[in-house]
Amino acid sequence: MDFNDTPQEAEFRAQVRAWLSKNAKPLVGRPTVSRRLDSTEGMAIAKEWQTKKADAGFACRHFPKEYGGQGRPVIETVIYEQEEEDFDVPSGFFEIGLGMCAPVLVQYATEEQKQRFVPPMVRGEEVWCQLFSEPGAGSDLAGLRMRAEQQGDEWVVNGQKVWTSGAHYSDWGILVTRHDPTLAKHKGLTFFFVDMKSPGIEIRPIRQISGGSNFNEVYFTNVRIPDAQRLGQVGEGWQVSIITLMNERLAVGGAPPPDADEILRLACQITLEDGQPAIRDTAVRERIAEWYVQAAGLEHIRSRTMTALSRGQTPGPEASITKVVSANKLQAISSFGTDLMGVAGSLSDPATTLEQGLFQTGYLYAPGLRIAGGTDEILRNVIAERVLGLPGDVRVDRDRPFNEVPTGS
Amino acid sequence: MDFNDTPQEAEFRAQVRAWLSKNAKPLVGRPTVSRRLDSTEGMAIAKEWQTKKADAGFACRHFPKEYGGQGRPVIETVIYEQEEEDFDVPSGFFEIGLGMCAPVLVQYATEEQKQRFVPPMVRGEEVWCQLFSEPGAGSDLAGLRMRAEQQGDEWVVNGQKVWTSGAHYSDWGILVTRHDPTLAKHKGLTFFFVDMKSPGIEIRPIRQISGGSNFNEVYFTNVRIPDAQRLGQVGEGWQVSIITLMNERLAVGGAPPPDADEILRLACQITLEDGQPAIRDTAVRERIAEWYVQAAGLEHIRSRTMTALSRGQTPGPEASITKVVSANKLQAISSFGTDLMGVAGSLSDPATTLEQGLFQTGYLYAPGLRIAGGTDEILRNVIAERVLGLPGDVRVDRDRPFNEVPTGS
Amino acid sequence: MNFDFDDAQKALKKQTRDMLKAVCPPEVPRRILEGDEPYAEEVWRALIDMEAPATAIPEQYGGIGFGYLELCVIAEELGRSLAPTPFSSSVYLATDSILLAGSEEQKQEHLPKLAKGESIGTFAYSEGTGALTADGLATRLASGKLTGVKNPVPDGDVASICVVLAASSDGPVLALVDLGGEGVSRRPVETLDPTRSHAEITFDGAPAEVLGAGGDGWALKDRLFDRAAVLFAMEQLGGADACLAMAVDYAKGRYAFGRPIGSFQAIKHKLADLYINNELARANCYYGAWALSTSTPEATAPELRTAAAAARVATIEAYHQAAKENIQTHGGIGFTWESDCHLYYRRSKLLALALGGARVWKNRLIDALEASTAKVEQRAELAHA
Amino acid sequence: MNFDFDDAQKALKKQTRDMLKAVCPPEVPRRILEGDEPYAEEVWRALIDMEAPATAIPEQYGGIGFGYLELCVIAEELGRSLAPTPFSSSVYLATDSILLAGSEEQKQEHLPKLAKGESIGTFAYSEGTGALTADGLATRLASGKLTGVKNPVPDGDVASICVVLAASSDGPVLALVDLGGEGVSRRPVETLDPTRSHAEITFDGAPAEVLGAGGDGWALKDRLFDRAAVLFAMEQLGGADACLAMAVDYAKGRYAFGRPIGSFQAIKHKLADLYINNELARANCYYGAWALSTSTPEATAPELRTAAAAARVATIEAYHQAAKENIQTHGGIGFTWESDCHLYYRRSKLLALALGGARVWKNRLIDALEASTAKVEQRAELAHA
């Protein structure tokens, strides 16, 4: 065992660090460069930074050269991202495009389309989003209803998508639709990419519990999409979506703070009824120990993923484990932190609350994290069926025409 | 609200107490009169006590007079049982007969049969057992395979039952069989009562983790049962079984100690690393508080059941709640108790272990309690479907001939 | 054995429930959440019209002289409806502290106004982050003047009178202050549950009188909190029930994979567990209600201290689980602002922290059990005999 | 980054696993459970034949000079197979304590015998129910004689030498005793896991020599336990994996309601949660193994203390959950004596209590984290800057 880079990795990491030190400020506390997805100013800064990265050859190094990458092993991309975390740079705008849209284009688009769309994405000149979920199709994505009807060499699309991150600032989006409701659920789907500025697309932000609006509802009314923008065959939409979701699973990472470090720090600052700091209270100590062990476990699991990547292997189910554990840990730690603060734990003004309201924010943010990008329940199914090989549930929706599947309405 | 008896109840309770004080010793610590179900000596003592109770009119007072009872409200039976708990008397031999077999006889047997069988049961002269579960039919009772074939006015029964408490000392048993495997699962069942001394019945005790053998395997080889001992119509076996199981649910009570009182007591006796009694340790205190709240909740739920009974109403799903909570609480408290004892918590000799090895015993006894008489999982289904009205699971075993239902073998 | 509310109490419960259904649908707490009103005037008015604040106040002080069981059934319904009113501050805390410790004059002066809702009262104890201790009180009462800062004070921005836990030369006391008077400044503060208003109150030599004969204010606070704990627990129970009902309805109507999600054991067993939590909480709450109903300002029932702590511990956990798993059951829609799920999630946390959180009540419960250790010891001897 | 065992270590793991599959199927621990043998002679012999006890002993002391990563993979397989042998006592505790603290002579005398299994060693610390403390030790070493009672001592009935944690005029020391010598009497004691033998050892003036230069025996014990914790955790990880594998197999093959029970979410999610626990435990164990492998008797790696505690906390929980839910997944058959489920359920408890239970290791973990508080503090300042 050896937690060090290989010589080549070490050398590359050094290059990255040198370049970052020259071009960015080290991160102190929270990022000062806005990461809010609804900030147009933040967007401008982010685009500039992404272009700079691309010019220096640090953007998507694992992409083929002809599509704006460097054709290098993915470990270099990971190393770059690790190093970037220590710097005060923007993020959160291009992940979906580069992580989910680009791969599906590379696999299914024409050579011409790849040349046209991937490089601008890598350079941050064009932003992409993903239009999959619908009000009636969340965990059960294949239950989607957005209708696509072919008219000549165009498709006319009607329906609603939801939970679309960044739809309002995206130039393009990937889209899965139902071209034939009389076919079986998974057989009647067709996949496209669409110009988000097309007539008939209306975007409404969704406000979350936490007050933020990272997601949108997207309404399609007679939106026309050229058949040339179809990815995969007509009826192949499910297979194309699955591949995209696989990439999402890899992308979905851990949770934001507070984590074990933050609750430990809080417990050192708070005095309990006995006049001692909370960290001297065994009930508090044992809870924190349990969270630390989970956090350390996830960190070491990341090291195992790194090991696989550095060997050119594809990682296993680590991402599913990480998401289930970290989202629930965030909710538990946030709630516990507010409890430790006593009656005043309900005070939510960051300006006057310990740790800048981190625990109160986490309390409101955690519920969404247990749901978005795969619910606890779906991820447990994934682990049980794909990793442990347990049999799937009984299906009543698979082998009949989609429009005859019970919907309750 | 009022936790006192009604005047009539109070008067009856006084009678009971007077009689018990005259005829039994108050309970001090654990019962000295053996409750082990495999002790023939214990059985003799138990029968004698049951007869004495019956002569005094305190056995099954809620049964009709003509069947050995007193035709009194069930609350009087409950009051008697409550009072009896404070005395050092035998128990554990007649519950199944009186709680499950007698009611089904009263509902389905001929008048002659009721006269013949119920009173001796009430007087403890004859002991009954219940033959339901099979190796392939536990949670899924209706999956049972024991075959009954009619020959003239007799039935010939072959197959195996399992988890039969007291089969080895029982005179009679109630039995559910499959008379036609080509009918749908729940339609091909027929219910009987059988003489446990019949030729072809072989009984083997099952040893549990805890070392005890409260259960038996019962093998039937060409056992002949007169058609006159059929309860309900041919094919009505499922309905008859359900009624019996309802009675079981009411009978299934809480768990044996250790409970909150015992772990609290243990925590007062053990000194931790800091030289303080464990009960001063906040981690210990919080755990015990949580168990106390569960225990108190169950106790108050019993009071609500009492209230219903005392009003002549039938209780709700309390028994299911009580079983799930108390079995899991027993497992958690037992495990925690051994942990509190430190490395020596593994020592299991009652003679030299704190609390006479109660926690070590509980640790080994608890797993069975979470399974026998309805697993955690089945009871949650019951609560979700019967109480909350949630829809049942998808069924693939219901609407096809039983012998075509997948079995994996 | 009659461990149940009587018919009149059940009728009162139904009346309160129907009234709140009509006057306080979820749109009302949402309006308060999103708007600037400190509380829902019309709901508070409706409670006054049904004489709810007067429930447990003796008739000679302008009350209607019902008992605490009646107040408990009202509390359960208030919790269920998320009613955004100063009821808990004014009734469970201010009114009850005056009933507990007030002098005859103080009772005569304040209780009738509190009973009619002409005056809103509250109780100020928290002094910001951290534990509250008898010798750690920074707010002081000296020669009739109160000085210090209390934060957060529930309904502190709208209350007219306030009972303040303060230090004094004789140790902790409960001091009664007119919040309209001099030396009092208040600043609304934002909490995780904006449907209930809170304030930071700064006392700068505010005129204040000791409540009643004074005496050990800390012990008084404990007795007050034991009584209030039952009433807060009843509100939490109502909230937990509302969450479970919401989750069950959704699980029956929402389809995925061609079947109601409530037919999946992942959801089904989750909801069964919430039901079990709620029933354990209900049993502890109703027992606490009984213990409270058999207590008087003069004499606390021996069962109250344990029962109140148990009720709080059970309902804090039950409401927390029900509120967060209700969101989870709703999936995507559950964490949107438009869904009502978060109204309960916010309230569950606010009520969990009130009067001190689970940690405090668990330790208080064990203290109470240790106090009755004699009993335990004795049993132990028996067991070993 | 190479957080993985190398090919040789993987080969050793497979070799050990195959050997134990052949020599130590479940019938073997069951035979020990039900019979009078203290341990499975043939399994112990097989381990000696593959030089397992010699794994981490330097060649100059008769070992084969592998590292602790090799010992860790062997430990994981021993845990998986429930091997009923004195391996953990003799290798993780006795051998390692001599390597840690023994004098050159003591190493020369004892390590070769331990390496070849000619001598079985153990370590005696527990003195019955309750916590072990530096100033609470009743067993005393005075002028070369040991007096006191240790109970339970794992393999105390079969070991030939024993390292004893004892009080002395210079404070706690580790004393080396020949259990075959005078002044030693032993009595086998029954534990929850009869597949591993234990004894109460009474020392009545038994000749004993201090291990090495002596010094702070309590600190030595802590260092020894940090190292042993990783190896015990590896055994627990192997056991937890075996339970999950058993449960998964059963859930695939057992049908109810016309379908495999593994297709019900109640079972499916239960097993997914066990898998998650095991993976978190594995990650912590392997990290602990690395930290142990980079430590020497002279210098402990800075990461070891935290890593060892984390590995123990994770595996105690993972094995406990896996063992008890494996029984639950098996249903009725699961709690019968004939099923192998209880062999793991018993072992999981025995190993959970060894070296002090979860409570002790959680507190030790926080102590270690507090020691590195400087780091945390610093981050805090940054976060507030």
Write a structural description:
The complex is a heterotetramer, with 2 copies of chain A (409 residues) and 2 copies of chain C (385 residues). In chain A, strands 1-4-5-8 form a 4-stranded mixed β-sheet. The longest helix of chain A has 29 residues. In chain A, α4 runs antiparallel to α5 and α9 runs antiparallel to α10. The mean pLDDT of chain A is 93. Chain A has 409 residues and is α+β, with helices and mostly antiparallel strands. With 385 residues, chain C is an alpha+beta fold. The radius of gyration of chain C is 21 Å and the shape is globular. The interface between A and C is large, with 58 and 55 residues.
Feature tags:
heterotetramer; A: 409 residues; four-stranded mixed beta sheet; 8 strands; 12% strand; C: 385 residues; 54% helix
Lay out the secondary structure:
The complex is a heterotetramer, with 2 copies of chain A (409 residues) and 2 copies of chain C (385 residues).
Chain A: H1 7-23, H2 40-56, H3 74-84, H4 95-108, H5 111-122, E1 128-131, E2 147-151, E3 154-161, E4 172-178, E5 189-195, E6 201-206, E7 215-226, E8 230-231, H6 237-251, H7 260-269, H8 282-310, H9 318-340, H10 358-369, H11 376-387
Parallel strand pairs in A: 1-4
Antiparallel strand pairs in A: 2-3, 3-7, 4-5, 5-8, 6-7
Chain C: H1 7-23, H2 27-34, H3 41-49, H4 68-81, H5 87-101, H6 104-116, E1 121-124, E2 140-142, E3 145-154, E4 161-166, E5 173-178, E6 184-189, E7 198-210, H7 217-253, E8 255-256, E9 259-260, H8 265-293, H9 304-330, H10 341-353, H11 358-371, H12 373-384
Helix pairs in contact in C: 1-4, 4-7, 5-6, 5-7, 7-8, 7-9, 7-10, 8-9, 9-10, 9-11
